[in-house]
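Study this fold:
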Amino acid sequence: MTTATLTEPASQAPGTATAGESDTPTEVEVSFELNGQAVHVRCAPTRRLLSLLREDFGLTGAKPGCEVGRCGACMVWLDDVPANACLVMAWQLAGRRVTTIEAVAQRPESAPVREALATCGGLQCGYCTGGFVMTLTHLHQQQPRPSASEASELLCGHLCRCTGYGGIRRAVDQLF
């Protein structure tokens, strides 16, 4: 069991508010599925999924970038739908399925995406690659598949500062 606890005064019961404080609990216990495994965490309800993944579970494939949901470096699947881990709070995870790049990279359905990015020059430093692989793999599995222009539009929440996007565009054209 992974725990993230806050230090509270001994006279105060965990999760209770003192006079003048909010009734919001200081900790929540959340159970969810992470890469196919049941996990439990006790932490502040507003702790971000990105922080939990990296600090508590040692899954560093989702990267901190903008921390406001605009760069895509922290992309995960939440119930099989792409979501920015920097925007998901711990309290929102109860009963949900979280899938990270560490799991998706092992799946055969991500192979065409990884190969297209590699052969088309859509990789350089690799910081953004996990996020692109997560979203493109999700889109590549859709039936019917989106067109290349639709897939490009759906990637608008991803930033890459190294490639100039030419290789990424070629990979999208090859995949869709």
